[in-house]
Amino acid sequence: MTTNPTRQTLEALGIRGEAEILAQFAEVRRRFDEEAARRANDDAANIAVMRNAWIGRTAGAITHITDNWLKPAIPEQKRIVGKALNELKAHVERTLEELRTRAEAAGESGAGGARVDLSLPGVRRTLGTRHPLRQTLEELELIFLSIGFSVVEGPEIETPYYNFEALNIPEHHPARDTMDTFYLSLPPTPGKPSPELLLRTHTSPMQIHTMEQQKPPVRIIVPGRVYRRDNPDSTHSFAFQQIEGLAVDTDITFCEFKGTCEYFVREFLGPKTRTRLRPSYFPFTEPSAEVDASCFACDGRGCRICKHAGWIELFGAGMVDPAVYGFVNYDAKRLSGFAFGMGVERMAMMRYGISDIQLFYQNDVRFLRQFP
Ligand code: DAH
Fold it and tell me: What ligand 1 atom has the least distance to the C-alpha of 341?
């Protein structure tokens, strides 16, 4: 049962004369205008629904009027109905088109239906900059690339063999302690002993991987992330970056080692910077040294930055301990070399006068903007 008059013939509606017919059309038009006013701010999808209800080819109101009012009309009524229908149809189509255009414009310019002003400047997306750690890393890499080193990278998950044993770090060494190292516990594989794995505590394991994989001569640097079980404070982080260096050849002496350190320090901190090698100990180098640079702030006179020492500690290094060659089947009688390992954060902090390592990891743009 329907009360919609467009679904019935004029005869069934009891309509005959011209005035009655026109009144009937006026009523339909009133309903249409009412809906159009209600939908003035509808989006394009809703306008499409309305359009289908009014001028859809099979079920639109105009089609019903054509089928039910016009086609069965008696000859005297046909002209009146036809003319009124044409007018209604033109009005409906025009109005729907206006609604559609307005809805689409509003959709493009966001809410509110504001018009797009094409003369306005576009949305400018500011270019980012490289993170100060990245900048430092690239600078360090360039210095070593310029003297014949190549860059290699390696895994952050290691076995104790590569992280410790092959580097001549014995079982009882404190660096192996669970207080310092993140050990990984993996689900056991049936029938196999579960492998002991850890997060590398330094980039030095790549010395071993590299020498296992290639014959001498070797000249590599290894940038990468390393992990230690330290509580975060202004100089400690549980994850930080290092650059490892390794040079092995048949004719590398302590002179090459010292010369390389001096070259690096001058390139990184300026030509007037002096270098000092201080005796130290690492299980995988013999002799071992701490490489210091004369303080860039006071030129060695002593200030707060160098804690009145005149020198700043840069990194650990030394001549490769012959015991290490034994782990990689290198001929210790014929070969010699040097190695070093530096903290990228430490170098960046010194270089830029940054006093808190945590600033590197907080991604605060007020900090990052200072390194354009
Ligand atoms: N692996 C050492 C550390 O993380 C740094 C280091 C010292 C690396 C001396 C070396 C080296 O290659 O020769 O503390």
Answer: 8
How close is the Cα of 131 to the center of ligand 1, in Å? 25
| pLDDT over 90 at 116, yes or no | no
- pLDDT tens track for 64-109: 999 999 999 888 888 999 999 999 999 999 999 999 999 888 877 6
Q: Does residue 321 have its Cβ closer than 6 Å to ligand 1?
A: no
Of the residues 282, 342, 346, which should be mutated to test ligand 1's pocket, given the most ligand atoms within 8 Å of the CB? 282
Pairing of strands 311-320, 285-294: antiparallel
Structure tokens at 289: 């040294």
pLDDT value at position 111? 52
